[in-house]
Amino acid sequence: MEYELIRSRRRTVSLSVTPRGVVVRAPLRMAKRDIDRFVESRRDWIALHTARVEARERALSAVEPMTEAELEALRAEALRAIPERVAHFAPIVGVRYGRITLRAQRTRWGSCSAKGDLSFNILLALAPPEVLDSVVVHELCHILEPNHSPRFYAQVLRVCPDYYAHSRWLRENGDALQRRLPAKGNG
Fold it and tell me: Does one domain contain both 123 and 34?
């Protein structure tokens, strides 16, 4: 079975299936025959996950990009909804925030600057409201804790107890949302 091998200073071997194929991460000194044996022992797991990845890629290939008019309508909806949710959650989190910027991005759902300025992806307006809220809470909590420490997540979960379920939804469906962006657009 073919796979991409990435060696590093890690202690254990791991396996993942991506749209490009199977990726094995292994310790620098692990023998190639041991890596091959590991991959072979996971053949059924690889087959299952390869089928899932291929099905997901087929579904994603059917996603049509938005027209410029649809993108502008989405931008208007995001401009209405996102600042409203930030204003709702800021007092619950217990913070004050700076500017809010909205962008059509391919890599981030939100960010928070050291000054408390917030940035959000307009594609969040296509997500379920509770998913949008979880991203808003996440970014507001960064004003309190500018990291991803246990204290940070304690703040997030205090306000959004189902945060991990919403985060999972975004991981599983985010690619489909991002494929809605027109090829040239990231405005």
Answer: no
